[in-house]
Amino acid sequence: MRDHKGLNEITRIIRRDIVSMIHGAKSGHPGGSLSAVEILTALYFDEMNVDPENPKMEDRDRFVLSKGHAAPVLYSVLANKGYFDKEELKGLRKIGRMLQGHPDMKGTPGVEMSTGSLGQGFSAACGMAMASKLDNAPWKVYTLLGDGEVQEGIVWEAAMSAAHYKLDNMVAFLDYNGLQIDGDVSKVMNIGPIVDKFKAFGWNVIEIDGHDFDQIFAALDMARETVEKPTMVVAKTIKGKGVSFMEDQAGWHGSAPSDSDLEIALKELGGVDNE
After folding, report:
1. Looking at residue 3, what is its pLDDT?
2. What is the spatial distance between Cα 249 and Cα 251, in angstroms, rounded to a whole number?
3. What mean pLDDT do residues 181-188 have?
4. Phi, psi (5° rounding) for residue 193?
5. pTM to 2 decimal places
6. Residue closest to 73 by CA, chosen among 233, 252, 240
7. What is the rounded average pLDDT of the residues 206-232?
8. Number of domains in the chain
9. Residue 154, class by beta-carbon neighbours within 10 Å (0-12 exposed, 13-18 middle, 19+ buried)?
10. DSSP states of the chain
11. Which of 17, 26, 83, 240 lies at a C-alpha separation of 20 to 30 Å from 57?
């Protein structure tokens, strides 16, 4: 029986970290970071075989944040998991500090791939899964894409390759919050019907509520039982989830909260500190 109460508390801490670090940096991407919190929490605090004390463990599972601009959610998850001291979160996007605006695999413990150019992380994740297959290794690969990101052609080349090579050791999550930097995804460049498209490319596709732990874990269980197909979990989410004035607002894709915004957000998220 999974400890949903414990996981929910972790998500609260992570959301608080996200708004605090972006406020401190005076730049960053809160909307798409907040929408992905439950997914990364489920992966790092339950599903994946990882060891913060040994981040380069050979048989570790790999996670690639393909939507690299959502780095704050990954950084908070890694810090709360124990990969590095939480004090580092205060250095987000600051010169001379470890946590850059996009994930850096050479400078940050736990980051498996430097990402930011949309679609390239997904492609790299496919390559990692293929490497695991070729080595007959036990480790799996997980990745997270944004819905605006799948407008990139490179995503579909990778999707075609993953199905062709039967990468059933790969699970991708699509953070389907419906908004991107320029507004509604369906108006900027409609990606629908996205479920049918990935199915047509040969993927096992599962639709879930991306904020519901029961549905996330059920999808992961189904993916584990799927053979000879990679799995795409289309997770319906809310951009800015957890902060009322950010929810479902495209303007919070890449804007930092002001002092007053931060005060309101932290109050809604249950306080400034929980340690």
Report:
1. 72
2. 5
3. 96
4. -80, 105
5. 0.96
6. 240
7. 98
8. 1
9. middle
10. ---HHHHHHHHHHHHHHHHHHHHHHT---HHHHHTTHHHHHHIIIIIS---TTSTT-TT--EEEESSGGGHHHHHHHHHHHTSS-GGGGGGTT-TTSS--SS--TTTSTT--S---STTHHHHHHHHHHHHHHHTT----EEEEEETTGGGSHHHHHHHHHHHHTT-TTEEEEEEE-SEETTEEHHHHH---SHHHHHHHTT-EEEEEETT-HHHHHHHHHHHHH--SS-EEEEEE--TTTT-TTTTT-GGGSS----HHHHHHHHHHTT-S---
11. 17
124 within domain boundaries: yes
| Separation of alpha carbons 129 and 18, rounded Å | 29
Q: Report whether the peptide linkage leading into residue 55 is cis, meaning its omega lies within 30 degrees of zero.
A: no
pLDDT over 60 (residue 268): yes
Residue at 273 is within a domain = no
For residue 52, give the CATH number of its domain. 3.40.50.970
Report if residue 274 sits inside a domain: no
Range of the domain at 164: 4-268
Q: Is residue 243 part of a domain?
A: yes
Q: What's the rounded Cα separation, in Å, for the pair 247 and 238? A: 6
